[in-house]
Design brief:
The strands form 4 sheets. The chain has a 9-stranded mixed β-sheet, sandwiched between helices. The protein has 18 helices and 16 strands. The model is unreliable at about 500-505 (pLDDT under 50). Strand 6, helix 5 and strand 7 (about 180-185) form a beta-alpha-beta unit. By secondary structure, it is of the alpha/beta class. Bound molecules: iron/sulfur cluster (SF4). Iron/sulfur cluster (SF4) binds near residues 418, 423, 424, 429 and 435.
Length: about 500
């Protein structure tokens, strides 16, 4: 709550005014509510609103009424439907299953933490019997959509496990009939034509890391031996994207996706990063801050930064992205599109790191190479740093029920229900925000964290405030039209029901 606009309880007309949260954004007062509605008011109109002085003849009455800001004259069923739609994700079990096929990796990225091992550590490859049990476990979860995401280390160093999991899951799905989605997060340095054929034949999406132009990328993402990791990204992105086109796939939907991580060296390079993404025809860039789990103090001094420094970078780079859209090039910022979907549409993007309750253990699970099951991939990383709190089962011994009802999963859910969290419950951004308790735990030592001091809160608050501020100044609606385009996620068809050669007529 903005103290400059504190509502004097004596002036509040409790009979007329419905539930709302508010904040001063730029020169306007932003009203929000749990139906995901928002409205900007001039400060004088805001005072008239809370005093119950806006009646049916007032031009502001209808916009306020339609958005459920009055206690009377509204459709309660429609309001309930809106809230239900926003929380529809609660009716399914975890849909995202991250499988760590190996901890081995041939790179030494500056921001990589405890969980990677050297290439000689073959004992950190997932055996095929563990892979089979992980797939069996995932299929037992109640969810119509099942996403398998291969993570590492570098997951493709254990290629047999990826081949096995994909084909075994496809075979099982002949009877299970779920919507299957596969993706592999890879540095592309072990890619071959045969692997590309396998992945594309079965509709496995490929995601790589691209931190910006070559000098920045190679500075952040060094190889353990000689060579440039950018060269592999450059070569294989081009080859794979050309192969999609050769197969007649729409390049807007089918291409190698990319993720970037912001280091200190990135802070002055926002424009270069966006240009690099646009040059490759990418339609989305995710300006991700560092996830500073487990860094040595000296490493953090080298590549880390404060949250105000990150937000300054974010705002400047977002402005540049918006400018490109105004010039006719469609490119969205991924975190902005998550928030904007919550702010401008009746839908919830179900982004696990920005949900309430959070998705750890309830929207996603992570399977380590040894069969241990974690609430999510960050929980697995925490375990490699010596903290087993987020281990919630094992593929050999645990039932789905035991995993999903694990005390840690319950605790994480309780710690991320923002209606009950100090600061969140009255924050104007609460309807479009979310909590990641694991992040709080790693930073502050407790899963509840302390807002507004927690780093994630500062990030989410800063980004949402900037988006709302831009919208509050958007007199001709041209920016909102751009932002609404960012909320349209054209869905890719899931996996291809691959029929092995020779079985086509069986
Ligand atoms: S985490 Fe911070 S920004 Fe988000 S709702 Fe809570 S107080 Fe507001």
């Amino acid at each position: 709550m903005n103290t400059a606009l504190a509502v004097d309880p004596g002036t509040l007309d409790r009979e007329k005014v419905g539930f709302f949260r508010y904040a001063l954004v730029g020169e306007k007062v932003l009203l929000t509510n749990d139906a995901g509605e928002h409205l900007f008011l001039a400060p004088g109109d805001f005072r008239r609103f809370i005093a119950g002085q806006i009646g049916p003849d007032d031009a502001l009455y209808e916009p306020l009424r339609r958005r459920y800001f009055f206690k009377h004259d509204f459709d309660a069923h429609a309001l309930a439907d809106k809230i239900r739609r926003k929380k529809a994700f609660l009716s399914h079990g975890p849909h995202l299953h991250a499988i760590v096929t190996s901890l081995r990796c041939n790179m030494s990225c500056k921001y990589c933490h405890a969980s990677r091992t050297g290439m000689e550590a073959v004992d950190t490859d997932m055996p095929l019997d563990v892979a089979r049990k992980a797939v069996d476990f995932a299929f037992r979860v109640h969810t119509p959509v099942l996403g398998f995401e291969f993570q590492g280390g570098e997951p493709t160093v254990n290629w047999p496990a990826i081949e096995f999991i994909v084909d075994y899951a496809l075979e099982k799905n002949r009877y299970e009939k779920k919507e299957l989605i596969f993706s592999v997060v890879t540095n592309l340095t072990f890619m071959t034509d045969e692997k590309v054929k396998f992945l594309l034949d079965r509709g496995v999406m490929i995601c790589t890391s691209l931190d910006g132009p070559q000098d920045l990328h190679d500075q952040n993402r060094g190889m353990t031996g000689k060579g440039s990791s950018y060269a592999a990204v450059d070569e294989w992105m081009a080859k794979i994207n050309a192969e999609y086109v050769r197969r007649g796939r729409d390049p807007d939907l089918f291409h190698v996706d990319a993720l970037m991580t912001t280091t200190r060296a990135s802070l002055s390079r926002g424009k270069d990063i966006v240009d690099e993404y646009m040059r490759r025809g990418l339609r989305s860039v995710h300006l991700r801050p560092l996830n500073p789990f487990g860094f040595a103090v000296n490493t953090w001094k080298l590549i880390g930064y404060s949250m105000p420094e990150f937000l300054e970078f974010y705002r400047r780079t977002l402005d540049y992205i918006i400018e490109q859209n105004r010039r006719g090039t469609f490119i969205q910022e991924r975190m902005a599109s998550v928030f904007l979907t919550k702010m401008l549409t009746p839908d919830e993007p179900n982004y696990s790191d920005c949900r309430s309750p959070c998705g750890s253990g309830s929207a996603q699970l992570a399977y380590s190479y040894d069969g241990n099951i974690y609430t999510d991939d960050e929980g697995r990383m925490a375990a490699h740093m010596g903290n087993d709190f987020f281990r919630i089962g094992h593929v050999d011994t645990s039932s789905v029920d035991e995993v999903l009802r694990h005390p840690t999963v319950k605790a994480l859910a309780v710690a991320s229900i923002q209606d009950a969290l100090p600061a969140c419950h009255s924050c104007a951004f609460k309807p479009s925000c979310g909590i990641q308790p694991l992040h709080n735990y790693m930073f502050d030592g407790d899963i509840f964290g302390q807002r507004p001091l927690s780093r994630k809160c500062q990030e989410f608050y800063g980004v949402q405030q900037h988006l709302y501020e831009l919208l509050s100044r958007d007199a001709d609606g041209s920016l909102e039209r751009i932002f609404r385009r960012w909320t349209i996620q054209r869905s890719r068809p899931g996996t291809i029901p691959y029929v092995p050669p020779g079985e086509a007529n069986a």
